[in-house]
């Protein structure tokens, strides 16, 4: 099978986002901040990218959907645990690895529902051939195991999404460019040749401690030649790309030196194979750069050039002092010499040669889709209403999300409206005038008094 690469071909893109996702809060000092997804959304709206794609609010994945992979008792635990009843679940918290890296927070299960719901719905859209690329920046939580939380991840939305794709596709390729090994996904599909996992990550004295071949600090580019060989040998019919942004230069937890353009080259290259593509989020702990990266990669998916000068947006202060989209690499030395990388490539090619060429499978009757048609295509008859999610971006996160923490620099603080933690604001209808001026304010049903966000301590 010969693949054609048509880099400039316009693709139909659908995008999943729920305005509540930025309200969830892992706790003071925790590096994982769901607020970065709201920042990304607001930035791509102000770049006007929403006009070029279909925007959907994901359904909340049910416990039954989650147990397509996860164990029943683990999902029952996630549904039941809350900050106010943790003392009743101390043994189960230890059993399921919940409490430190994976804390209990308000709305934990709902957060998992939204993350998983967007990824599963994206797979269903691809299966129905209703889109070419599906994007869910709230997904990509690749460390979660069948019965265990791990590495800030509770429910493995990627595994659930791939299981959905396997209903229609013989072979699915999973690519992970997060700085951490995609161990949860690899483990889930370790015994099947219907899913190939390719993870680019740092190995050695680094979480999660799995996934040897060794890549050292300072990596500043990904090698397309490896993926070309994978595509030739494996010949998948669908691709899932986890775009963890902690591999970027200057990440709070990362140690690579990849620029946003370099990171997005992976999106551009895999998109060029013209296969159904699911793009997911993942890690990323310098949140101003996460928002930059995922906004730019949304533009790449849309084959749209966007200016380096950032448009004014709700979080403009975060992006100082330059207020540019792209970041410069640091002067970190790339410890991966060309000779060293050539040896790794040679070993990878040897591993690929040992695998069966394009393994086949006898396809059975196609199971029912995880997401009913009317749920996926909610508000389809009214495209203006479908885009009303643009208005929900005005909703308020809990105060603790906005801080002068060390990872966000001096420009991280801003005024936000008062909102109780976990409270849900009413959804508001957007102005249906397509070409409205960006400065037009959307009136919310409730007015909240602006207060200065409290400065929170950041700790590793």
TrEMBL record:
Reactions accelerated catalytically: N(6)-(2E)-butenoyl-L-lysyl-[protein] + H2O = (2E)-2-butenoate + L-lysyl-[protein]; N(6)-acetyl-L-lysyl-[histone] + H2O = L-lysyl-[histone] + acetate; N(6)-acetyl-L-lysyl-[protein] + H2O = L-lysyl-[protein] + acetate
Residue intervals of the Histone deacetylase domain: 30-300
Amino acid composition bias (Acidic residues), ranges on this chain: 371-381, 399-409
Binding site for substrate: 101, 151, 285
Presence of keyword Transcription regulation: yes
GO biological process: heterochromatin formation
GO molecular function, one term: protein decrotonylase activity
The UniProt record lists the keyword Nucleotide-binding: no
Family: Belongs to the histone deacetylase family. HD Type 1 subfamily.
Name of the protein in question: Histone deacetylase
Annotated source species: Periophthalmus magnuspinnatus
């Amino acid at each position: 099978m010969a693949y054609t690469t048509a880099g400039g071909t316009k693709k139909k893109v659908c995008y999943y986002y729920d305005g509540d996702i930025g309200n969830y809060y892992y706790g003071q000092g925790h590096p994982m901040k769901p607020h970065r997804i709201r920042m990304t959304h607001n930035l791509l709206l102000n770049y006007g990218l929403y006009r070029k794609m279909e925007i959907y609010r994901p359904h909340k994945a049910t416990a039954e959907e989650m147990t397509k992979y996860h164990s029943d008792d683990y999902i029952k635990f996630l549904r039941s645990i809350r900050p106010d009843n943790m003392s009743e679940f101390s043994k189960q918290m230890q059993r399921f690895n919940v409490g430190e890296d994976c804390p209990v927070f308000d709305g934990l299960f709902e957060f998992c529902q939204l993350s998983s719901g967007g990824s599963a719905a994206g797979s269903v859209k691809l299966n129905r051939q209703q889109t070419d690329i599906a994007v869910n920046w709230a997904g990509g939580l690749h460390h979660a195991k069948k019965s265990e939380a791990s590495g800030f991840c509770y429910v493995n939305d990627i595994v659930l999404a791939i299981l959905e794709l396997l209903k229609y596709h013989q072979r699915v390729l999973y690519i992970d460019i997060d700085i951490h090994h995609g161990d949860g996904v690899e483990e889930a599909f370790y015994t099947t040749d219907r899913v190939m996992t390719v993870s680019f990550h740092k190995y050695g004295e680094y979480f999660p401690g799995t996934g040897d071949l060794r890549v050292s600090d300072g990596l500043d580019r990904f090698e397309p030649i490896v993926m070309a060989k994978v595509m030739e040998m494996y010949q998948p019919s669908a691709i899932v790309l986890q775009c963890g942004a902690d591999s970027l230069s200057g990440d709070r937890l990362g140690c690579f030196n990849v620029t946003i353009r370099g990171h997005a080259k992976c999106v551009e290259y895999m998109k060029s194979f013209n296969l159904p593509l699911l793009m997911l989020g993942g890690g990323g702990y310098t949140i101003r750069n996460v928002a930059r990266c995922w906004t730019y990669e949304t533009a790449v998916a849309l084959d749209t050039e966007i200016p380096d000068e950032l448009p004014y947006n709700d979080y403009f202060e975060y992006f100082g002092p330059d207020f540019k989209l792209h970041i410069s690499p640091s002067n970190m030395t790339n410890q991966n010499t060309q000779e060293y990388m050539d040896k790794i490539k040679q070993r990878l090619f040897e591993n690929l040669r040992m695998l069966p060429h394009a393994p086949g499978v006898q396809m059975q009757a196609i199971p029912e889709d995880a997401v009913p048609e009317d749920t996926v295509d909610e508000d389809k008859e009214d495209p203006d209403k479908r885009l009303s999610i643009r208005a929900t971006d005005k909703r308020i996160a809990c105060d603790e999300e906005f801080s002068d923490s060390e990872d966000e620099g001096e420009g991280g603080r801003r005024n936000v409206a008062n909102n109780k933690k976990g409270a849900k604001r009413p959804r508001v209808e957007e102005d249906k005038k397509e070409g409205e001026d960006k400065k037009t304010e959307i009136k919310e049903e409730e007015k909240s008094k602006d207060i200065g966000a409290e400065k929170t301590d950041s700790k590793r």
